[in-house]
Design brief:
alpha+beta, Arc Repressor Mutant, subunit A, 3 helices, 54% helix
Length: 76
């Protein structure tokens, strides 16, 4: 049986630096429930880097697929 890896917690400041955005933007997403891997711990938000990276990878993959289709034009 595979052992689960422990979460790699980041503060909002660290997560914002990792994603190259502002802590305020991430805080707003977390409050709306739109930040994967985010949990509130005694007044501060923490984000699981593994979940955040997986979500970022999936988003980039979807964006890349859409961009290549648009760049090449419609299918014949």
């Amino acid at each position: 049986m595979a052992e689960l890896e422990a979460p790699a917690w980041l503060t909002l400041d660290e997560a914002a630096e990792h994603l190259r955005t502002s802590p305020g933007a991430l805080r707003a997403r977390a409050q709306r429930g739109q930040l994967p891997g985010a949990v509130k711990d005694v007044g501060r938000w923490l984000v699981d880097r593994r979940v955040l990276d997986a979500e970022l990878h999936a988003t980039l993959a979807a964006t890349t697929r859409g961009a290549s289709a648009a760049r090449n034009g419609p299918a014949p």
